[in-house]
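Quick one: structure for this chain?
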Amino acid sequence: MSRLNKDVLAGGLFLALALLFLASGWSLPFGSWRRIGPGGFPAMVAGLLALVGLFILAKGLVKRSERMALFANPRPMLSVLAALVVFGLLLQGAGLVVAIIVSTLVAACASRPPRFGRMAVYGTLMGAACSLLFIKALGMQAPVIGPWFGF
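Got it. Here's what it folds into:
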């Protein structure tokens, strides 16, 4: 029996990401509760991420399980990593909606069997929601449908 399990690793990863967020915003002014500065948001994200990480880590330490084989099945991890790379490569040229749909389909390869039909619908809905939120509501400078398609 070992205490090294998926929950311990995930909790440790969340804690490491929380430290990264906190370090990235440390030199920025935090502002006040009424007017949050540019360093306030990374600090809040870091705090929430650290709380989640501590909870998951504690759950993993309490739970006894068999030693897990690290990277025994790299397909899910590589699929999600590939989806992030595809999103980054497609965003400016293909646009936000297309980048989200394609990266969702690439991420679908992480599950067995991959459900491409369901993920295409999910990607389309997420693309529409993200374009409304980020581009229309928040004014993000990214094309909804990119110049590769003549728009």
